[in-house]
Amino acid sequence: VLKVLSHIDSILRSPRAPPLIYRRSKGPVQNYLKENGQECGFEHLPLTVEMWADQLMALKDLHRSLRKLSLELVPWHTADPQDNRESIRVEDLQFIVDAILEEIENKEKNSQTPPLPTLFAIVSHFQKLFDVNSLNGVYPRMNEVYTKLGEMTNAMRNLHELLELDSSAPPTVVVDTVGKLCDIINENVTEQVQQLLGTQDIRSIIDKLEEHECFFPPFQALIQDLLCLLEIRNLDDILPTVRNLK
After folding, report:
1. Which secondary structure element, helix H or strand E, spans residue 145, and what is its range?
2. H helices of 74-163, where?
3. What is the pTM of this model?
């Protein structure tokens, strides 16, 4: 027994032992031993062992508190396998603390991520802009907008190339250029119509068309009658058939 007590005492007096783990007793046990002359150098051990027991119990309470904190900060972590153990080690507490610290460090690194209220506001704004009535319709509308945007981007790129515009030219420049091109085409068409009808002004063109409308129906009726009378089908056959009738 003395050997065991001496070994425990040497551990308590070791420089590696924490200062608070060893305290000499000043209570009734120490006084009783002194009065009866039975002091043997181990009178501090009972209180030290009692302190150990208190610390071990406090360790369980600390472990329970750390687990609650961990569930608040990192609820997606699996349950601690040490929860059902009778004894709690310092390593178990250190594991929980490390997990919490790691999560805090990751949050600090990802601090640029907007908070949930900001994300909700962004989604709500998107719904208003693109007439989405429910959250379930957000993703389909996003895909639709993305597709339309891709089509528009490709169309603008092709127009830039066809019109020989710089790729940085804004859409307004593209629209203006297309408008000018349409004006040029319309002017060319007008000139061709004027050359075809032999006139240079719009009023004359209208008059020519009205003359055509007055002349063409009787002419067409005459041709149809000749085709029936001569029993032929083609216009080219009218003149040779009439000559043969002489």
Report:
1. helix 138-162
2. 90-109, 116-129, 138-162
3. 0.35
